[in-house]
Write a structure and sequence with these properties.
The chain has five helices and six strands; from the N terminus they run αβαβαβαβββα. By secondary structure, it is α/β, with parallel strands linked by helices. A six-stranded mixed sheet has the order 1-6-5-3-4-2. A hairpin with a 2-residue loop joins strand 5 and strand 6. The N and C termini lie far apart (195 Å). 16% of the residues are buried.
Length: 360
């Protein structure tokens, strides 16, 4: 054998064969009579693992009683959509055929009629005198002979100067002046009568009478006017009393005229309700008593009675006010009643009815 050739560094080395796969490890020898242990169980589920849902039993299986489609279902039936023999009315003979002469122009149709569109004789011509001013139209009427001429109205006509019944200008002016003077005189007369009647009315009713002599105990002696209810007789600082303590029951004061004296304590309670109490001395004349009674009868919050202890002929009392007079015709009596009746009440709205009517 010759010497081997040295390796050529320019030539690549032949590829080496891959190593053989490793031999499987020999199974452990089983001893006879020793049981083989089962493989280990499934691994425990990992945290957060959700098992997939299990299909519902019977899902996807045909339902009991389900019938498959019949053969030829959905196929057109023989003769479907074809006209049936005798269906629908038969067309009448000649129906849909053109009628003789239909659509043909009639003789003379559309031809102009003789004279149509031709101007008529005289049509559109102005009539004689049309648009011409008529004689006298729009002209002012001619004045009547003598109208507006000097000397009109003619002598002797109504309204002419010198004709009876025609007032002259100075006469008309005089009548106007007389009417104005007469109206002014009538107005002055009415004014005088009105003033005179008012003065008479006020004087006859005592309106505006002087009440400066009224004693005002509300200012001079208010301590004597305490409105207390008592059960024992009261010694009043004024006679007759004009206010102060009094009994529980009031004297009836709805225009009552008493011919005998009444209890002071009951009468003072009536003054508290707003009554005016007129008293008179037993020496007053019957005519004077009647004159006072005329002012009382039929009047609410009014009463009249004699009072033997008073030292004046007539005395008028309201709560806190008193006036002494000598004569029943004194105009101050009516003025006192108008001024203090009900307005002097310290219990406004209290009644005068329902009280006692007994006398001493």
């Amino acid at each position: 054998m010759g010497n081997p050739e040295p390796p050529n560094p320019q030539q690549p080395a032949p590829p080496s064969e891959p190593p053989p796969p490793p031999a499987p490890a020999p199974a452990p020898a089983q001893e006879s009579g020793t049981p083989v242990s089962p493989p280990p169980g499934p691994l425990p589920p990992q945290p957060g693992y959700v098992p997939p849902p299990q299909p519902t039993p019977g899902y996807g299986q045909p339902h009991p009683g389900y019938a498959p489609p019949q053969q030829d279902y959905g196929q057109p039936q023989p003769g479907y959509g074809q006209p049936q023999p005798g269906y629908g009315p038969a067309p009448q003979p000649g129906y849909g055929q053109p009628q003789p002469g239909y659509g043909q122009p009639q003789p003379g149709y559309g031809q102009p009629q003789p004279g149509y569109g031709q101007p008529q004789q005289g049509y559109g011509q102005p009539q004689p005198g049309y648009g011409q001013p008529q004689q006298g139209y729009g002209q002012p009427p001619a004045p009547s002979p003598g109208y507006g001429q000097p000397g009109y109205p003619y002598p002797g006509a109504p309204g002419a100067p010198g004709v009876p019944g025609t007032p002259s200008v100075p006469a008309r002016r005089t009548g106007l002046i007389i009417g104005i003077v007469a109206g002014a005189a009538a107005l002055l007369l009415l004014l005088v009568c009105g003033i005179g009647g008012l003065v008479w009315y006020r004087s006859s009713n005592g309106a505006g009478a002087d009440l400066s002599d009224v004693v005002n105990y509300r200012e001079s002696n208010p301590g004597a006017l305490t409105p207390d209810h008592v059960q024992e007789p009261v010694s009043y600082p004024m006679i007759p009393p004009a206010g102060g303590p009094h009994f529980q029951q009031w004297q009836n004061c709805n225009g009552d005229v008493y011919t005998a004296p009444i209890v002071d304590e009951n009468a003072v309670h009536s003054l508290e309700h707003g009554a005016v109490w007129i008293t008179y001395s037993p020496g007053l004349t019957a005519a004077g008593v009647e004159r006072l009674a005329e002012r009382v009868r039929g009047q609410s919050h009014m009463m009249l009675s004699p009072h033997p202890a008073q030292n004046t002929p007539i005395s008028l009392q309201a709560w806190g006010y008193q006036l002494a007079v000598e004569d029943a015709d004194d105009e101050r009596i009516d003025e006192f009643i108008r001024t203090y009746r009900e307005t002097a009440a310290i219990e406004p709205g209290a009644p005068c009815g329902g009280g006692i009517t007994t006398t001493q």
